[in-house]
Amino acid sequence: MHASPSFQINVRRFGTWRVASVILVTAAVAVVGAWLPRALEMSSVCAWITILLLTLLSTAVLVHAGRLQPMSLRWDTQRWHLGPMATSGFEPHTGRLAVSMDLGVWMLLHFTRDDAGRLHLGTWLPVQRRGHEAAWHALRCTVYCARPVSLPAVAPF
């Protein structure tokens, strides 16, 4: 079995993710806003809990989308490496990468560190084609085909 060739990309464009986050929060607020008058007639406690949860989740989504920093993602033929863009080539974290969502021109990747404990949920990395055109095809090939080579323990003869 042959290993996938090494690959490195600096993920630095997050416009699609930020726009999608704003649209998602706006849709959630609109739905709860339409539901709220009816909910207040039936149970005000349920309505206030929903408003509180919506506020907390919306704030978390928008803060996350706004705080995304450029990241360096690298496959070295054995494992994935992730770190700030300033550490390109020497990323501090190794782990596994999985494609969570693929829309052709946009992917949501999930990076789980090798040293992650039970409470570490991993790093979500939204990647868009725009701004990464030259490396897009190689990135897609690598995320779907990158598997470490398992060398035989003994000679086959």
The largest sheet has its strands arranged as: 1-2-3-4-5-6
The gyration radius over C-alpha positions equals 21 Å
* N-to-C series of helices and strands: EHHEEEEEH
Structural class: alpha+beta
Percentage of residues assigned to helices? 40-55%
Shape, please? elongated
The low-pLDDT segments are: none
Strand content: 15-25%
- In DSSP terms (H or I, runs of 4 or more residues), the helix count works out at 3
Report the average pLDDT across residues. Answer: 83
- Give the N-terminus to C-terminus distance in angstroms: 17 Å
How many distinct beta strands?
6
- In this structure, how is the largest beta sheet organized? 6 strands, antiparallel
Mind explaining what this structure looks like?
A hairpin with a 3-residue loop joins β4 (93-102) and β5. The chain starts with 6 loop residues before the first strand and ends in a 12-residue tail after the last helix. The chain is of the alpha+beta class. α1 runs antiparallel to α2. A 6-stranded antiparallel β-sheet has the order 1-2-3-4-5-6. The model has no long low-confidence stretch (mean pLDDT 83). It has 3 helices and 6 strands, in the order βααβββββα.
List the defining traits of the structure above:
6 strands, 3 helices, six-stranded antiparallel β-sheet, alpha+beta, 157 residues
What layout of secondary structure does this protein have?
Blueprint: E1 7-11, H1 15-42, H2 44-67, E2 71-75, E3 80-84, E4 93-102, E5 106-113, E6 123-128, H3 133-145
Antiparallel strand pairs: 1-2, 2-3, 3-4, 4-5, 5-6
